[in-house]
Design a protein that fits this description.
By secondary structure, the protein is an alpha/beta fold. The protein contains 17 helices and 21 strands.
Length: 496
């Protein structure tokens, strides 16, 4: 089979940016399957990497973002420098911090309908899958060092491309003092690890580790994965295109004597105009996004041209949904844009779970948000029928599917606190009734200003008087009191 791979180091929150790589591979896999190929889509959790710094946010098993104060943050703080698989789950549920993160990614892929095979790097080291690669690299350490020196200044005469796990403190160390290929071990000293401007202190222990009790540095580990998993194709972000990828290709060719996979470099997308970043807190998770959008709309977003940088603006999700609806219409009926119609014909079958015989009924997103002002489902359905968005002959399942967008649009209005964040009261509030009683009492005291004009026959035409309070101000209508809003911008006219 053709093997398509992605991977991530399990740190912080599994957010939409991490899923980017999964979705890029998914669309390639789907097209290849459509052409009759057998395809496996694999995804590695680079979980033998060390925890280098504390994340600002985490996500629980359901994908809800929480702060460090809501979990056992000490489980992380006490274990800086250790592999992710050796760090307890801060939520106390999974076997490790790494297992918790990997489960989140697997759940996100399942939510989006993508079938992936998850691999743990730690397990690949422990079961011996990496042994032949580690042995080959360390058997010709001079060549490995020479190749890496073209890309990293740290590859000096003492550099050995293997990081043992200290048997005393459990941290990874970069200081190897001797290699024994016959018994497949290395001797090491547990020294400090520099992380930016910070230092993770080593314990100074001197010991011996097997090839299964450590890891290759990233620039060697990536091509090692290509060999172990027999990778044919791998998408990756543009940050790797100028660093890790060239060195990986060189190591694959010169050190491992293997062919690198076919690459696909994709642009990042931003969130609300800013870079996605767990450390900065500018993230959105798949569960959060699926509260606002159908899965097919999320898949559509990823299907758009991967070579172009794009922004996911949560304030303007209505535009994304409108674009998807037009994309869907282009597939079924064609539109006055040949390129969009061609794109829809190629991509739409891979964006939806199943291609229906007829175009699904979709409520315009902003109209769905307007219906979200109403709590009564019967009234929602009536309004949708009255405005012509749901045909009169639609069956119950079609109506239910169409109205499902209402709750998503309503949630969007609430979270963005925009002009659609209102509620229409089902009953007339007491304040309106009291106002009506007051009006009845002073109705007789209202004075009316009447304009007169004479018709051709000389008679007076009296225009209907406009009721006014004795102060001269017009009486207020009822409508504002029928709406409830706790906060947010002033009301404005909204489109149907």
């Amino acid at each position: 089979p053709i093997v398509i791979k992605g991977g991530v180091s399990p740190s912080g929150v599994a957010h939409l940016g991490n899923v980017n790589e999964i979705m890029r591979g998914y669309f390639v896999a789907e097209v290849l399957r459509e052409r009759g190929h057998e395809v496996r889509q694999v995804f590695t959790s680079d979980d033998r990497d060390p925890l280098r710094k504390l994340p600002r946010k985490l996500a629980d098993a359901d994908g809800n973002i929480v702060g460090l104060g809501e979990v056992d943050a000490g489980a992380l703080g006490r274990n800086l420098g250790k592999p992710y698989t050796d760090i307890p789950d801060p939520f106390g549920e999974a076997d490790s911090y790494a297992a918790h993160f990997a489960a989140l990614l697997a759940a996100d892929a399942e939510r989006l309908g993508v079938d992936i095979e998850m691999y743990s790097n730690t397990e690949l080291y422990e079961d011996g899958s990496f042994d032949p690669v580690v042995e080959r690299v360390l058997a010709d350490v001079d060549t490995a060092r020479e190749v890496l020196s073209e890309y990293q200044a740290k590859a000096d005469a003492d550099y050995v491309p293997f990081n043992p796990i200290c048997a005393e403190c459990g941290k990874l160390t970069e200081t190897v003092t001797d290699i024994d290929l016959d018994v497949e071990t290395v001797d090491y000293v547990c020294t400090d690890m520099e992380v930016g401007d910070e230092t993770i202190e080593g314990c100074g222990h001197e010991g011996t580790a097997t090839f299964r009790e450590g890891k290759l540095p990233w620039r060697f580990e990536w091509p090692a994965q290509w060999q172990v998993l027999d990778v044919d194709f791998e998408p990756f972000g543009k940050d790797h295109a100028e660093g890790s990828w060239p060195s990986g290709v060189d190591i694959a060719d010169t050190v491992l004597d293997i062919e690198p996979p076919e690459p696909m470099v994709y642009e990042w997308f931003t969130l609300n105009g800013e870079t996605l970043s767990s450390s900065a807190g500018n993230i959105v998770t798949v569960p959060e996004l699926l509260d606002l959008l159908e899965p097919e709309v999320v898949r559509y977003f990823f299907a758009l041209n991967p070579t172009r940088a794009r922004d996911l603006d949560l304030e303007r999700l209505d535009q994304l949904v409108d674009d998807f609806d037009r994309f869907e219409r282009a597939y079924y009926e064609g539109v006055d844009d040949d390129s969009l119609t061609a794109f829809a014909e190629a991509a739409y079958p891979h964006v939806v779970d199943e291609v229906a015989d007829e175009r699904p009924i979709r409520l315009p997103y902003t109209f769905a948000a307007v219906l979200g002002m109403v709590d009564d489902p019967t009234l929602r359905e009536k309004l949708a029928h009255d405005e012509g968005h749901i045909p009169d002959d639609a069956d119950e399942a079609t109506v239910e599917a169409a109205l499902a967008r209402v709750e998503q649009a309503r949630t969007w209005a609430e979270r963005m606190d925009n002009a659609y964040n209102y509620r229409l009261q089902a009953d007339i509030p007491d304040v309106v009734r009291r106002r009506d009683d007051r009006r009845a009492r002073f109705a007789g005291r209202c004075r009316c200003r009447r304009r007169r004009r004479r018709d051709d026959s000389g008679g007076d035409l009296r225009h209907r008087p406009r009721p006014r309070h004795r102060t001269g101000r017009p009486l207020c209508g009822r409508l504002p009191a029928l709406f409830r809003r706790d906060a947010g911008p002033a009301a404005r006219r909204v489109p149907r």
